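Supplementary Note 3. Input sequence used for the single-chain structure prediction.
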Amino acid sequence: MINIQLLREAPELFKKRLGVRCKAELLEKILLVDGQRREILKGVEDLRAKQKKVTSPDEGRQVKAARKEQEDVLKKLDAEFQAMIDMVPNLSDEDVPSGYAENNRVVKNIGEPAKKDGPPHWEIVKLLDIVDFETASEITASFWPLLKGDGVRLEMALINFFLDENDKAGFTPVMVPALVSARSAYGTGQLPKFEDDLYKVAEDNLYLIPTGEVPAGNLFRNKIMDSAKLPLKIQIPSACFRREAGSWGKLGKGLIRNHQFNKVEIFEFVKPETSEKTLDEMAERVSSLLRKLGLVHRIVLLAAGDMGFSAAKTYDIEVWMKGMGDWLEVSSCSNCRDFQSRRTGTRFKNDSGKTEFVHTLNGSALAVGRIFAAVCENFWDGKGSVILPDCLKQYIGKNSIER
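The predicted structure, written as discrete structure tokens, is reproduced below.
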């Protein structure tokens, strides 16, 4: 949630920093309604004070009726104000490029991409008989994967590798519920704007998590964290559920955009003065995993219009897919600053004893299905086998995957 006090003080700065992410008309309407509600609130407070002083029953009834009328107006204005402010995304950091994806900027390359060579992963997994998309479609619907044999072993090997490596870097594993309340989905910014992207259990008003970020961001809802424990670093292995699969061309094939996929999410609660540095460290954490896997990748700073709703700054980490001949995003690391903590009421006491909102950051470390696909494409030997990276061999108990 944005800081309304800052919007009142610097509306032009908000319009500039939000840019294409939010229409200026919405900000102007928010300020208009905010002014109206503050004026009505003052009137209500004056009537409350007057009601305490009146001695005549008739005058008392008149003041009470006037107060009730103004309170009803205030209630409607508060609801209108909240509905509008809930749709305003986070402010972009100053160094974030303006515009949309065409303005994304590559900030680091790790390795040189090879020329397109070999089949794409959806052909490889079929040849190896480790993923069965057809049967999954019969069981459920399109874009729901079914892994089997060494496909399951590779999936679990990747999860365990990510967990172990993140654990060495100080990220404590946390297992979370797969369903969250509407309040929790609101807290991290999924609701109300993106409700259509979520799977909902209507009878219980619960949502399947699209990422481990959602339950993680609500761990300290309405609590004051111990500042001595900051930064608090956790990792969340979980299944994720999204309704986003569809007409994406080659990016809609295979394991790239599925309704269900596994992911290991990393999440940090930090003091405000350290969050910018923490984001760079988080991107480096992801890069270190990819280097150990031997995957060529690059770090991309996203333009404002390409960022998520809650993010102030985002790095996408993209892997080169040798079979597809293209880059594929496998991680997105974001600094949300105090946007989510304002929604969840998560605070800490600073060194001066003043209560502040913590800053939150999240990143995929990593999206398992996409790394599964990258391993298949980049280590296909052209003879019928995927030669496994050394770091995975101990987890899967073999050197290669063959039919």
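The first helix runs from residue 4 to 9. The chain has two domains: 4-85, 101-402.
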